[in-house]
């Protein structure tokens, strides 16, 4: 592998660039971005070796797409058109169904691998890229059987080498479960932040009262709306289902409080407490 | 100050014991607990110097109450009965109104100081006690004018010395604002945990998909139901109000998704994003 093109050099693309370059110093990392300023920043941070455009990717061994998922759906067919027979395109999007669908009948389907590396922080942009972000994390690969075997093998080695565990899942199951394990957390956090800001907007120094518990629960409300709006749009049905269940559970908790049934309030919490064991091992 | 009694030697009481002892090696820390096993654990962890009972506190210079807030309301009058004229009782409860009320006409009201040190983790019990927990954190003091001046002065020095900022507030304002800044976060986290566990209970290995975002948002669901049930009970009206607003914001978000108004979904998130700036400085 010699030429790797990364489309979108923010948190995910930039962090992949750092780790891949460290393991494979012979590789040339080409950066592609809509915004010249982002590319210049990525270059000055040494995330990429060269600036490039979509016109250049015919000599790519690997193209990594790490941009908002609506842009991926739009661009992916054109990118696949341009890739050579021995090149591979992978994406790192947080949804998988729409992305897999848009190229299901593409003549170069076997040159594409759908992935979701489950790693990140609440920050975004090239300056958010950090080394070691993917160590010990899960990379979900969808429809692996539709990708040429030699190409999958090469790509998966790259991701295993930066510390990832590979897990296989179909796109429907991915989108359904990830709505619970990730998308809902983002909405709960954004709406918690909104509720508190609305209430306390005239008393800014009230935020002195915030402890580390509030900071942790509301952390994801710092996430990028540019990335998250298209995720919610593509995974609309699943996300709405999780929201319905979450709202119902909150309502039930409120009703228990209203009728002074604190024995059941206690049980609600006690029964959820074993999340301790479940979460063991997650950073 | 020579004899300090700590009633409840768990996360808060135990962590206070560590820091106070470090700054004041001459002090003897006496531990009091309902459970003999807890006291033995605190002793073997060197959190306390001696085991004691409520009968012993007539020679206390300072009594720190760090037990569930319903137990504090029940015990506080008896403890104040027993304290000497030169002794001070403080509590560390997460609610303040009911606690201040129960002793408002007590003949020894001036020997009590109501506090809420805003610090903690999701763990509990003596083994959860850590040094430095209070460094840079806020200690909210209520009705300071009702405490004898010399006694406040002595106690506040102790808390400033372990790194706390002292903030003054009346009990009503404390309970109202803390419902937003802390109590709501705990419910949002418990119900998030519940929603995900309910859905995924038959697919435990789905939790492999959880990233650090989910772990952070659900962290408080590990908290102790024994501590939190009485907090929600005492702060019922305020907590119900926060829950109503939170549920309404979630419903509105869901409705925007249902009618495909993703421009507004974007705005909802963008408008909450400045929580970044607000949270700057919180651990």
From TrEMBL, chains A, B:
Its EC number is 1.3.1.12. InterPro entries: 6-PGluconate_DH-like_C_sf, NAD(P)-bd_dom_sf, PDH_C, PDH_N, Preph/Arog_dehydrog, Prephen_DH. It is an enzyme of class 1 (oxidoreductase). One of its GO terms (molecular function) is prephenate dehydrogenase (NAD+) activity. Keywords: Oxidoreductase. Residues 2-283 form the Prephenate/arogenate dehydrogenase domain. Pfam families: PDH_C, PDH_N. This is Prephenate dehydrogenase. It comes from Flavivirga spongiicola. The lineage of its organism: Bacteria, Pseudomonadati, Bacteroidota, Flavobacteriia, Flavobacteriales.
């Amino acid at each position: 592998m010699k030429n790797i093109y990364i489309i979108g050099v923010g948190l995910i693309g930039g962090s992949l660039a750092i780790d891949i370059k460290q393991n494979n110093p012979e590789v040339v990392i080409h950066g592609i971005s809509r915004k010249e300023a982002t590319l210049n920043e990525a270059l000055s941070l040494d995330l990429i070796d060269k600036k490039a455009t979509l016109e250049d990717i015919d000599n790519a061994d690997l193209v990594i797409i790490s941009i908002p998922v609506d842009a991926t759906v739009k661009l992916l067919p054109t990118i696949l058109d341009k890739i050579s027979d021995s090149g591979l395109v992978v994406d790192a999007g947080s949804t998988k169904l729409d992305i897999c669908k848009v190229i299901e009948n593409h003549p170069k389907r076997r040159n594409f691998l759908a992935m979701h590396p489950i790693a990140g922080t609440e920050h975004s942009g090239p300056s958010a890229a950090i080394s070691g972000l993917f160590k010990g994390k899960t990379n979900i690969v969808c429809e692996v059987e539709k990708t040429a075997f030699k190409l999958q093998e090469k790509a998966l080695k790259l991701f295993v080498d930066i510390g990832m565990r590979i897990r296989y899942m179909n796109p429907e199951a991915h989108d359904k479960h990830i709505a619970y394990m990730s998308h809902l957390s983002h909405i709960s956090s954004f709406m918690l932040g909104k509720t508190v800001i609305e209430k306390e907007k005239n008393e800014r120094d009230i935020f002195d009262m915030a402890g580390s518990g509030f900071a942790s629960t509301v952390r994801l409300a710092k996430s990028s709306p540019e990335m998250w709006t298209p995720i919610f749009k593509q995974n609309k049905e699943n996300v709405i289902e999780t929201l319905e269940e979450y709202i119902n559970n909150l309502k039930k908790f409120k009703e228990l409080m209203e009728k002074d049934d604190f024995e059941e309030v206690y049980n609600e919490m006690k029964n959820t407490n074993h999340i301790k064991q479940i979460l063991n091992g997650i950073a």
